[in-house]
Amino acid sequence: xxxxxxxxxxxxxxxxxxxxxxxxxxxxxxxxxxxxxxxxxxxxxxxxxxxxxxxxxxxxxxxxx
Length: 65
Prior knowledge:
By secondary structure, the chain is of the alpha+beta class. The protein contains two helices and three strands.
């Protein structure tokens, strides 16, 4: 089972901030944020981690610490 490295916060304006191990990894707004919020509601913990990883884009390349 993967570790829960990703987390997210939704603001009152429906802007989504995705963090990885406490560091900002992505910001989603508009239609992209709406799709993310809709998808994450029904996702299991593992699916949610994968969804957040996908939405960070070209983020993980093996040199992060």
